[in-house]
């Protein structure tokens, strides 16, 4: 995954300056997410911590607007698969949904951006189901390949809380994105 990130950054560094218009409009695509992070049970009394690991696939869609080189918009993303407690495969996050605002800078064929939003994730614990939710923060680079194809990489960190099972988690994903701009 680090080689993919390096390739996208190199491609972005050679991009020409532009006015943001190429990034305007609707877009949609698919993702592959490599996940990790940490989870802390009952943070109020003696904590128990676990590492999180796993991979997911997903879809995304959004809409961008621009003003000069500033690009801004909203995106929804959904990921499916499992990010589990390391060593406990029956304890897992599944079905992550992210609602994001994005603000970026147009570099021509590339756009660097930051994202802020809200995330929900299903939590399955040996057959017991509950929901976790919280804020997300991230950054990424999208590169326009041709007139409508987008490839990119994005890093997102989610600060999730689950009141039912009494835990907090930091769920991070490094995501490879491929999409189409309409």
Molecular structure report:
The chain is mostly beta strands. The chain has a single domain, classed as Beta Barrel (Porin). The protein has 1 helix and 8 strands. A hairpin with a 3-residue loop joins β4 and β5.
Per-chain topology:
Blueprint: H1 2-13, E1 25-41, E2 48-67, E3 70-85, E4 88-106, E5 110-125, E6 128-145, E7 149-162, E8 167-181
Antiparallel strand pairs: 1-2, 1-8, 2-3, 3-4, 4-5, 5-6, 6-7, 7-8
Please summarize what this structure is.
This protein is mostly beta strands and 182 residues long. It has one helix spanning 2-13, and strands spanning 25-41, 48-67, 70-85, 88-106, 110-125, 128-145, 149-162, 167-181.
Helix and strand element order: HEEEEEEEE
Strand content: over 45%
Which spans have pLDDT < 50 for at least 5 consecutive residues?
3-18
- Taken together, the total number of domains comes to 1
Level-2 CATH architecture = Beta Barrel
Cα-to-Cα separation, first versus last residue: 27 Å
Side by side, the strands of the main sheet go 1-2-3-4-5-6-7-8
Helix content: under 10%
Instruction: Count up the helices.
Output: 1
Rg on CA atoms, Å: 17 Å
Main beta sheet: 8 strands, antiparallel, barrel
Number of strands: 8
CATH topology: Porin
Q: What gross morphology would you assign?
A: elongated
Structural class: mainly beta
Let me know the average pLDDT: 87
CATH class: Mainly Beta
